[in-house]
Amino acid sequence: MTIPANGIGMHLYTMREVLAEDYPGTLRRLAQIGYQTVGVSGRFGHSADKIRSFADEAGLSIVLEHVKYDRLADDWAGALADVQTLGAKWAVVPSIPSELHSVEGFRTAAAAFTEAGKAARDAGLKLLFHNHGRDFAEVDGQVLFDILLEVDPALLGFELDLYWVVDGGKDPAAYFRQHPGRFPALHVKDMAADGSWEDVGAGTLDFAGMFAYAAEGGVEQWLVEHDKPTDAWASAERSYRGLTELQF
Question: Which CATH number fits domain 5-244: 1.10.4160.10, 3.20.20.150, 3.90.226.10, 2.40.128.50?
Answer without folding.
Answer: 3.20.20.150
